[in-house]
């Protein structure tokens, strides 16, 4: 009963949003992106690349951009949560301009792929906005476009999301498939990658 649920303080959409955030936190973790980069390095011709992965996620989450369709409340929440997780992922590289370009993670493709994806998504949203008839959907798209613009080159505020920030390459190696902790401690950039 929706009326009774509302009286006792229920907010169903918040529960769904929390689920959406939890799932996105897993799907857009630095470890997942790093595994894709690792697989691309090992098998470049057959790999599912980070760029392809982010594009596939975007096509599902922002499906309404095709045809400028209305975006309902739950989908608006999902899209905002996706943007928040992208920014949180960027925070993982470094939360200041200096850290962003000098940290261990800035030396691999994570930030390059992320910035390219954010720029492409911003362009699609900007192109779609004039054609959107639904007022709330238009406000929503204008809002997330603004969030992406403001965080392209500026310092990101800490606490965007639950992703651990300033993660080292050793942390990545510890989570890499086929690499145990002892191997991770001994690996360095001068060691050749063995052919599979």
Order of helices and strands: HHHHHHHHHH
Average pLDDT score: 77
Low-confidence stretches: 154-169, 181-196
> What proportion of the residues form beta strands (DSSP E)?
under 5%
Form type? globular
Give a count of the beta strands, DSSP E runs of length 2 or more.
Answer: 0
Q: State the secondary-structure class.
A: mainly alpha
Spatial separation of the terminal alpha carbons: 58 Å
How would you portray this structure in words?
By secondary structure, the chain is mainly α. The protein contains ten helices and no strands. The longest helix is centred in the middle third of the chain and has 21 residues. The chain is globular and about 50 Å long. 24% of the residues are buried.
Key structural traits:
62% helix; 10 helices; mainly alpha; 196 residues; globular
Brief synopsis:
This protein is mostly helical and 196 residues long.
